Amino acid sequence: xxxxxxxxxxxxxxxxxxxxxxxxxxxxxxxxxxxxxxxxxxxxxxxxxxxxxxxxxxxxxxxxxxxxxxxxxxxxxxxxxxxxxxxxxxxxxxxxxxxxxxxxxxxxxxxxxxxxxxxxxxxxxxxxxxxxxxx
Length: 135
Known about the structure:
It is a single chain. The chain is α+β, with helices and mostly antiparallel strands. Helix content is 41%, strand content 19%. The protein has 2 helices and 5 strands; from the N terminus they run H-H-E-E-E-E-E. It has helices at 4-23, 33-68, and strands spanning 82-85, 92-98, 115-116, 119-124, 127-132. The protein has a 3-stranded antiparallel beta sheet with strand order 3-4-5, with no helix packed on it. Strands 1-2 form a two-stranded antiparallel ribbon. A hairpin with a 2-residue loop joins strand 3 and strand 4.
């Protein structure tokens, strides 16, 4: 078996010979180093352009779909769904009866969010978000 130094020298010699032979190729040959680099750069550019075009197409498709969907109206003020009575410490629900303000909502979709001390869950056209009140 040859010594590692001889193997390295043989590899270096083969690489040098390969580079010398590539330099003898015609300037328009696809295996010349500068043409290999140019082809790789062209492929990378084409791949990037295709990805960008695909992303733009997806974005346009999503926009068209979103524009065609009827968005529900959003009630940002918090109302009690059930009838209430009293205020402060005397506040209570008046049984399982809908509040008068919702009497005409029969058959309409209603989206409920949960509220607890210090935070509000808020629904918008973009999603449901937890808002933290700074008191």
